[in-house]
Structures are given as structure tokens and as C-alpha cells.
Amino acid sequence: MNYWLLKTEPNDYSYADLVTAGSDVWDGVRNHQAQSNLRKMTVGDLAFIYHTGKEKAIIGVADVIAAAFPDPTNVSYQAVKLRAQYRLPQPVTLKEIKALPQFAHWALVRQARLSVMPVTPAHWHEVINLATPTDSQ
Q: Of 5, 20, 26, 126, which has fewest CB within 10 angstroms of its CB?
């Protein structure tokens, strides 16, 4: 299993929209590096859904239920199909991520415009930990 991060503008398509749909096609990706990453996705891979714009935060988790196929909006490109899994207990903001040295080389920090990127297992687990509030009592 691989881990990914997919960016979306929440005014266009939010994690809540994916939850409402249950599953949906992740299409409209045009950047060549992002396209290459889409083609590497396999069924069962997990993906963080990241809201761009004012939020700039990882919001939820989805899984890949159909590997790359021709993008219905333009068959010259690829798309995948995702299924909503769960909303993170609390969003993990880009500001939080940038503040931690272990994320310094992650594409989310280094390549701000890349809309589909791999996530290392270590980064995946660190984000999950950041999203999970600890009980300090």
C-alpha cells in the first residue's frame, strides 16, 4: 500500500462533497508530475485530502477504489476513483507541518503547486498523530 496527498479547492470540491458522494472520480489533474503520481496509484492506497485556499489543511482520508483510467473531462489525462474513509479528528494545517523539521523535504512544503504527491509512511503516521488530540488530563 502507498500513501498520497491530493489537493482540492474546497469551494470547487471539498472533502464533505466526497463524503456526500461516497465515492467519486478524482479528475481534472493536468500537471505532468501530478499525472505521473496518479498513474502510480493502486487500489487500496490511502490518500489525504488537502484543502487549499484559505484553509490550507489536511482534512480527511480516502482510499483508491479504481486505479488510473482516462479522465472523463479530457481523455488525454488520467483520473482515479476515490472513496471517502474518514474526516481527521482535527485538521492538520500547512503552518503546523512547516513548523516541524521532519517535513522540510516533503513535496507539500517544497512544491506548493503540486496537486498529487506521495506521502512517506513516516509522514503519514506523523500527520495522523498531529490530527489526533491527546487527552492532557
A: 20
